[in-house]
Amino acid sequence: MLDGAKSIGAKILVAGGGRCNVTHDVVDESAYAGSSRHAIRKVLRQFDVPRTIEFFRELDVELKREETGKLFPSTDDARTVLNAMLRAAREAGAIIRYPWRVTGMTKPSTSHNYFTVTGLHDELRARRVILASGGKSLPKTGSDGIGLEIAKTLGHSVTSRVFPALVPLLLPKEHFICGLSGLSGVATLEVRSGKGRKLASFTDSTLCTHFGLSGPSVLDVSRYWTDAKHDDPGATLIINWLPALDVEKADAILIKLGAISPGRWLREQGLPDRLAKALCDHAIIEGSASSHQLTREKRRKLAGTITQLALPVIGDRGFTHAEVTAGGIPLSEIKLETMESRVCPGLHLCGEICDVDGRIGGYNFQWAWASGFVAGKGAATDRP
Q: Which one of 34, 165, 358, 370 has the minimum C-beta count within 10 Å?
């Protein structure tokens, strides 16, 4: 096993805030984007969540389920997961070399039946290779895109677009949300096409930051926003601060408030004081005034600001802060029973290098465990 990172297992150690969100209690293909869901399902079912739990239990790592459905080690320490996996690898006879950065690879030819794997100061030969280099997210952990380049030299194609996913989004620094840094609450983020059609929607904790927005709902929606904006410049990202309401319901409530102020009502709905005031200010109304003083125009403006505020997203925080990569090697180029390449026999591919990216919450680790298991089992068969 060759690992180019200075610290082995860095992505495991930083996952889940250092606790390592190993998987989710319910995982199916609907949690993923990229390659076809049918193809993704064929891989996932070969190593499902119950098998993952059993696997870690065999390594003396007990997993606990949190209310969100996320599964973490009972120790709440990512190093528990990493140490168990390294121990199991060594007990199985695996030799681990790091930092050993692969810089290139040549495939078998008519004159020799092995791959030549080249590093900065050495080279190795192997009849079969598993390429599990990751994509381009969190490059400091070693996944800086070199695996994608190597795969291309071996005959694979890579999707026309490779971009950050599960990544915080940027707003203009003068936007009122940037002035609410540190404030969080449950909100719905929705991507709409230029014609108003809903393309994706996520409701979860949402964090205002000095640069824009972060939190689970934002990370989940980010890849769909980026993808939609590339194909449709008119696409918009909408936020609803009160997910149980739409603009019509909010407007109807505002009509009935009478002497109760909009600011008071918003606070009663659980919104923080600063956010309630900011929403009223953005709608250009006096939040402490009686609601019956609102003109129809101002009332509708406030209802829209609360439930369907268009966000002027100017970008994202890039691969440095992205938790996963969207795009990669299409699963159509891989034999899903073994994860062996269809274009380069003897090469197996798994994990984030594939064109598969999942939601936040352990889904990407589950894809890594499942595709890695299938690739490892396939390579171990060592068919000529």
A: 34
